[in-house]
Specification:
about 100 residues, Arc Repressor Mutant, subunit A, 3-stranded antiparallel sheet, elongated
Length: about 100
């Protein structure tokens, strides 16, 4: 066997591909507006909105809404809880890659 404990499960909230993309983008910026996230992740408006809500509901991101002139602006940023969860998820993936590399 490879020495990796495969009994642990990844964080299912982050593990979903669309949410993983969002968390990856937010992990390297202080905050990101909705349009930037849409461009960087390749998600549709509807899918991005649903996934942001899911991440907000579990406390992984913070959403702020404001008006810039007459236009609404939605911005997302990772919370401390989200940062911990993402770091743990990255460590999980790193362990799997390390255990399975030749």
């Amino acid at each position: 066997m490879t020495g990796f404990d495969f009994s642990g499960d990844p964080d299912r909230v982050i593990h979903e591909p669309a949410r993983l993309k969002i968390m990856a983008v937010l992990s390297v910026v202080e905050s990101a507006d909705f349009m930037y996230l849409m461009r960087e992740t390749g998600l549709t408006r509807g899918n991005l909105s649903v996934q942001l809500t899911r991440l907000k509901d579990v406390g992984y991101i913070r959403i702020s809404k404001e008006f810039v002139g007459k236009s609404p602006r939605t911005t997302a940023s990772m919370t401390v809880v989200g940062r911990r969860a993402f770091d743990k998820y990255r460590a999980y993936l790193t362990d799997i890659l390390r255990a399975t590399s030749s």
